[in-house]
Structures are given as C-alpha cells and as structure tokens.
Write a structure and sequence with these properties.
This is FRM4B protein. This protein is α+β, with helices and mostly antiparallel strands. The protein is 55% helix and 8% strand.
Length: 285
C-alpha cells in the first residue's frame, strides 16, 4: 500500500521500492537502523529503469493528491467527476515531474530517489528526526573540538613567530576583550665582526690564525648566550651546553696553534686565552 512506502529509487540498471512492513524484520542499509523495511528490486536497461521510476513517482504523487482531495470533499462523488479529476490532475503531474527531473540537481542521469524528487511523502518520522538531530549534534561537537585544537595550534605558531621577530602577528586569535600576551624576543645568534678587531700581521699565515681566533671567539659567545637561555627543556639545554663546551675547546686549540707558530717564528706567545676563555665551571657541559 502507498501508505507503507518508504522510498522509490533507481541506480544505473536497478529500480527498487522500499516499503515498511511491521510483520517482517530485515537488515536495512538505510540510516537510522529502521526495522521492518522490505526492499523489492527489478533490473533492466538504464533508460527503461529511469522511465519506470518517473512513472512510479507520478503514481505516488497522484495518490497523495487524491488523499488530500478526499479530506476536503465530504460527500461522495460520481465516476464522471472522478474521471474529470484524473484528466485534470494526472496529466499535468506527469509532465511536471518529468520537467522536475531535469531541474532538480539531486537527480543525476543514473541516480534518483523519492526523497530527491521533492515528493510530499519525503517526511521522516519523529523518531528518525530525533536520531538525525542527535547525530548532527554529535558532529557539531566534534567539529567544535577540532576547531579549538586548531586555534591552539595557531596560537603556538604565532607565539613562536613573536619570539623570533619580537612582534605578535595579527593572526593571533583573541577572545572578546582579551589582550595579546607579552612575548620576550629570543636571544639571537647573529653577530658582526668589527673591522678594527681584525689583526694586521705582516705574516699572512699568522694573520689567518688570528682571524680564526676572533671568529671562533664570537661563535663561543653566541653559544654561551644560547646555553644560558631560560625555559629550555632538558635535552635542548644539555645539547646547547655541549655545543658551548665544544666552541670553548676549539678556541683553545686555535690559541695553542697561534702560540706554536709565534714561538716557531721567534715571537712571544700571546695571552688571549686568559681573556677570551670562561672559567672552568662554565666549560663543563
């Protein structure tokens, strides 16, 4: 019976009718887990299947219109009146639904259903509506949680940028009335050598050694700043201390090479290490 109809649809070469039969319980592939849903299926070529589907939709629409008309007409009607209504109501509906098929974007060339055709019988039960609302609320909650997670990630990225540039980016998400956090710029490792610091030895080899000493001294100072930076995790702090110790060791090696070369050339050794190198407590990793 039409009142038991759940859906009419076609897929490629398949036409199916879904009806609700409380006497039968079957496993349905539809959402909401409805019981008592029986599916009747027929197969033919695509054009025939599509034509059958259009005619079935038209028949169902006619049933709905007749049902509505009966509710409005209290008295019994003659066969002539019914035949007149069939002529006036049936024919326009068929052409209307055929044109609707081309207009409705939900109905594809090889895919259509009763619900996508815009039929008046596409309403779902109250129980199905409640289940659908619960499902949508659950999806909404998941999306909100994901949004909060992405906002936190954006905040961390903006904070990292502010630490490097010293300025909070405008993309930092702020709540109503919230002030942007104060961020201290990280200690940089960039440095510039003063031309006056470079030695002017006549011996090119000694001059290269002296230049290497000054450059390594700057590298050691930069490593020291990085190692003394606060709020570092244990692994990073340990690594930076080791890099600082390696820089100190290399500076001492350059100093030794300079003194060996100066003694070889008959010159006095320098005392640069006493000024450049840190104490023993700073040298340990």
């Amino acid at each position: 019976q039409w009142k038991q109809l759940e859906n009419l649809y076609f897929r490629e070469k398949k036409f199916a009718v879904e009806v609700h039969d409380p006497r039968r319980i079957s496993v349905s592939r539809r959402t909401f887990g409805q019981s008592g849903l029986v599916v009747q299926t027929w197969y033919a070529n695509t054009s025939l299947i599509k034509s059958i589907w259009v005619m079935a939709i038209s028949q169902h629409q006619f049933y709905l219109d007749r049902k509505q008309s009966k509710a409005k007409i209290p008295s019994a009607r003659s066969l002539d009146d019914i035949a007149m209504d069939l002529t006036e109501m049936g024919t326009p509906k068929v052409s209307k639904l055929v044109t609707l098929e081309a207009k409705n974007q939900l109905i594809m060339a090889s895919n259509g259903s009763l619900i996508s055709s815009g039929s008046q019988d596409s309403e779902v039960s109250e129980e199905q509506k409640k289940e659908k609302i619960m499902e949508l609320k659950k999806k909404e909650k998941l999306l909100q949680e994901k949004l909060l997670q992405k906002v936190e990630e954006l905040k961390k990225i903006c904070l990292r940028e502010a630490e490097l540039t010293g300025k909070m980016p405008k993309e930092y998400p702020l709540s109503a009335g919230e002030e942007p956090p104060q961020v201290r710029r990280r200690v940089g490792t960039a440095f510039k050598l003063d031309d006056n610091l470079l030695p002017s030895e006549e011996d090119p080899a000694l001059q290269d050694l002296e230049s290497n000493f000054i450059i390594q001294q700057k590298l050691m100072e930069a490593a020291k700043k990085l190692a003394s930076e606060p709020d570092l995790c244990k692994n990073v702090k340990k690594k930076r201390k080791q890099e600082y110790a390696d820089a100190v060791k290399k500076l001492q090696e350059i100093e030794n090479s300079i003194n060996e070369y100066r003694i070889k050339c008959g010159k006095k050794p320098t005392q640069k290490s006493t000024l450049a190198l840190p104490g023993k407590h700073e040298n340990s990793p």
